[in-house]
């Protein structure tokens, strides 16, 4: 280990000093000092011009604050895109919650009982409260009957994250139903047997 340190120190002593990429004023090695060309030192093309350095610094100074301005221009667009993405996700989730509640309500509406309407609507409201109590605003549950078909329809608005849009922009409607389930006799008569 000590030998390698000595070798490294000897190698450093043999190399010329360089400060920021420029030739040193006086090299350590006397032979190297003799080899330097005095004409090169006096040639203005090889000297660094102070004006050049100032121009570069001036260019850098003129770009100060550019990042802050770019950020101020781009950030509202990025935030709007993020908020619209979250709003769309909440709308899809609200639609799924409304579908699940309408499907459960329709399952009870299709059963042929005296209180089918109240049973279906209360079951749909129960599912809405259990699965997504804050996802849908102003949910309206309605049981419907058309001929021998019954079901439930839910109309609501998904919760709003984007502030400047109209409140009914993200409306959700779910409607499910089917034929009334009842015992049909095998004698060919129409309707349900009581």
Q: What name does CATH use for the topology of the domain at 68-179?
A: Nuclear Transport Factor 2, Chain: A
- Terminal CA distance reads 104 Å
Order of helices and strands: HHHHHHEEE
Overall shape: it is elongated
The CATH first-level class of the domain at 68-179 comes to Alpha Beta
Please tally the helical runs, counting DSSP H or I stretches of 4 or more residues: 6
Could you give a short account of the major beta sheet? 3 strands, antiparallel
Q: Could you walk me through the main structural features you see in this protein, from its secondary elements to its overall organization?
A:
- It comes from Streptosporangium becharense.
- The chain is α+β, with helices and mostly antiparallel strands and 194 residues long.
- It has a domain at 68-179: Nuclear Transport Factor 2, Chain: A.
- The chain has helices at residues 2-14, 30-35, 38-42, 50-62, 66-109, 116-131, and strands at residues 136-146, 149-158, 171-179.
- It has a 3-stranded antiparallel sheet, covered by helices on one side.
- Strand 1 (136-146) and strand 2 (149-158) form a beta hairpin.
- Helix 5 packs antiparallel against helix 6.
- It is elongated, with a radius of gyration of 41 Å.
- The N and C termini lie far apart (104 Å).
- The mean pLDDT is 79.
Task: Map the helices and strands.
Blueprint: H1 2-14, H2 30-35, H3 38-42, H4 50-62, H5 66-109, H6 116-131, E1 136-146, E2 149-158, E3 171-179
Antiparallel strand pairs: 1-2, 2-3
Helix pairs in contact: 5-6
């Amino acid at each position: 280990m000590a030998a390698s340190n000595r070798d490294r120190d000897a190698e450093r002593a043999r190399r010329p000093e360089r400060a920021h990429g420029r030739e040193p004023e006086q090299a350590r090695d006397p032979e190297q000092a003799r080899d330097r060309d005095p004409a090169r030192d006096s040639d203005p093309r090889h000297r660094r011009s102070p004006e050049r350095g100032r121009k570069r610094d001036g260019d850098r100074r003129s770009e100060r604050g550019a990042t802050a301005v770019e950020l101020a221009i781009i950030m509202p667009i990025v935030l709007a895109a993020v908020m619209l993405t979250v709003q769309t996700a909440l709308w899809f989730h609200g639609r799924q919650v409304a579908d699940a509640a309408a499907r459960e309500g329709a399952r009870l509406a299709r059963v042929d009982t005296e209180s089918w309407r109240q049973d279906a609507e209360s079951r749909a409201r129960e599912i809405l409260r259990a699965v997504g109590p804050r996802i849908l605003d102003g949910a309206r549950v309605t049981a419907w009957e058309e001929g021998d078909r019954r079901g439930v329809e839910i109309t609501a608005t998904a919760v709003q994250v984007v502030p400047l849009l109209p409140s009914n922009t993200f409306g959700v409607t779910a409607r499910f139903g089917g034929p009334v389930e009842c015992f049909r006799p095998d004698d060919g008569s129409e309707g349900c047997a009581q």
